[in-house]
Amino acid sequence: MMDATIHPVPGVRLGVAAAGIRYQGRDDLVLMTLPADATVGAVFTRNAFCAAPVTVAREHLAQAAPRGLLINAGNANAGTGAPGRQAADRCCELAAAACGCEQEQILPFSTGVIGEDLPTAPFAAAMPALVADLAEDNWPRAARAIMTTDTVAKLASRRLDIDGVAVIVTGMSKGSGMIHPDMATMLAFVATDVAISADLLQSCLQAAVADSFNAITVDGDTSTNDACVLMASGASGVTIESADSTAGQALFAAVADVCAELARAIVDDGEGATKRVTVAVSGAASATEARQVADTVALSPLVKTALFAADPNWGRILAAVGRAGVEELDVERVRIWLDQVLIVSGGGRDPGYTEAAGQAVMDQHAFSIRIDLGRGEASSRLLTCDLSYDYIKINAEYRS
Amino acid sequence: MMDATIHPVPGVRLGVAAAGIRYQGRDDLVLMTLPADATVGAVFTRNAFCAAPVTVAREHLAQAAPRGLLINAGNANAGTGAPGRQAADRCCELAAAACGCEQEQILPFSTGVIGEDLPTAPFAAAMPALVADLAEDNWPRAARAIMTTDTVAKLASRRLDIDGVAVIVTGMSKGSGMIHPDMATMLAFVATDVAISADLLQSCLQAAVADSFNAITVDGDTSTNDACVLMASGASGVTIESADSTAGQALFAAVADVCAELARAIVDDGEGATKRVTVAVSGAASATEARQVADTVALSPLVKTALFAADPNWGRILAAVGRAGVEELDVERVRIWLDQVLIVSGGGRDPGYTEAAGQAVMDQHAFSIRIDLGRGEASSRLLTCDLSYDYIKINAEYRS
Predict the structure, then answer these.
(1) Of B115, B177, B331, which is closest to A349 when you measure between CB atoms?
(2) Complex-level ipTM
(3) Which of B45, B46, B49 to mutate to test the interface with A (most CBs of A within 10 A)?
(4) CATH number given to A3-268
(5) Strand ranges, E, within chain B
């Protein structure tokens, strides 16, 4: 991604440092600061074993208006019990002292290996450098600093015109294990310079996440540390009063767009991924049913290995649809396409299907598996990737 | 498995032939015949896209007492629509003519690639040889003939004494993709020479399957062709009147035992598998909840790749438990062991845990992941295997 396309967000500053928490010789710590009147929305993992920083961030959000976000890579501070909580608290205390705010105004985020105690001394040592580094144009460096198994930094940015005023939406994300998200995988931070109430900002975030990050964590899966934060600095002077206003619609669309781009980047950087595949289910009796079929197909190791082999082995797609748990599915009405190529109809291979046509679709880097269940009007759409040797390599050797 | 331990089942004969349906130069077709007063129980896939032979076998079972089972490897006759149904009917017609029984007394089974039309000419051509080959001691050859990606034939046999009479329970199975069963994966055929009503035999089969074949198909997953059949020839002269009688208990135990051994053999021969791991969940509030947690852990690609690496990366187990969807899980009460080694307590790593102790367990070929949720009395147990490079290789190259 070209750094040139990443617009700083007025009012939002980022500091980056190499704290040596786990990695040596690279940046691994980010501090983001917000103006006093900024608003923040956030969504977190639903994992019961959520990490200490997630617990702390949730509590702090309920207590005070955030002024700072502290993000470290290399250690997830998850599965760390009471000492983990103490470490997260201590990190907030350090950042608050450095920023001149209350401890409750800091939101902590961690990503990396689970189950290892998080040392806080590196945070204390790095804090002066972090604060000295604060600047609005540090997004690209920050995006690199939060990477773990990611192979590319993930950034997206939009400049929109609202009533003649330029408004910015810029975000970064990290995450590379998307098949089942890795231990402490997905973080995303998106900022804008509009003024907007925290409630409205939260709606904006939830709408954007539903069709982006929640449509790549393919089983509603959530790691111990997943979090997505949307910040609004207010610095543009543009105020968003409602979601339905022209300005509100423009902002919501831009946030959704940035989230979708960041989510796609995670799939493209999926561990070992060589393909990016949209699984689109239509004609379902309910949204739940549509998602259930999309999940089953998108998660199937047999479908995923066929994607890796670029093998139009449609029998695996059909078998996955058949076992997705749809009650009284009439297989005669199910149709399955690869892009525009109809492969299944009437309970089996469509008479017009040719292997050559299927192969041509599968040979692409990105394509769609479309499934119409012929039962109703509901639909669902997920992004998935293939399952390759490199997925095994990355995950069998992650700690080595 | 030593052929010497496989006892023929009086009254049950098997014929084997090389029909060249897909494979060349190897046996691929089996006919099993039963006496007129035999009883049969069966369980089938719940996949909505079930194969034509499954539909036909279900119908025939409801219509008549089976006299013959016809099993082919290499082509699953699944996803084949109306022509697939015609092919399955034609195979039954051929076998019925050869056996001198009605078409409805033949049960067809197919395993192999999905979505290719099943040619019936090879069946017609092979039928005389198949019938000429019928013999009670052909179990080992039959077990080899039904293999697809299996690397070993799977057989189990017990001789028990019921009131001074020797009674036999012998079975064979095939299946090598167990993680998500391959397209048309799991078939098992078990026979005994007791006399028993079809209803009681069906209960016996269902009890045995619940703790064997259904405890390895780790998400309740079923391929398009899965089937397990239990036959009773009555030839021993021993009659089983009830499940509670001494004789009934002995028979049920032997059938369960044979099914468990055949199921273990499938996991051991799992595609690319190098480990056989029991996931045992206890302390759950309900059996559904216990199974849900066991499924999530046993299916997790991250857990499975850690198993392959023999890496005691317990954070992945903890994360899988946390995302299994258990409502209001108190993570403080969850305990996780590798065999007898306690790894997680109090929401994180147990203070007494050492990496060396965890490593020693993981270095074994077979071991247990035990999870106590601390919420109730329900439990569940699954067998799983690791996810290796060879799984990818086998499934990315299956059709090549």
Answers:
(1) B115
(2) 0.72
(3) B49
(4) 3.60.70.12
(5) 13-17, 29-33, 39-44, 68-75, 106-113, 154-162, 165-174, 187-192, 195-196, 227-232, 239-240, 276-284, 335-338, 341-345, 348-349, 366-372, 378-385
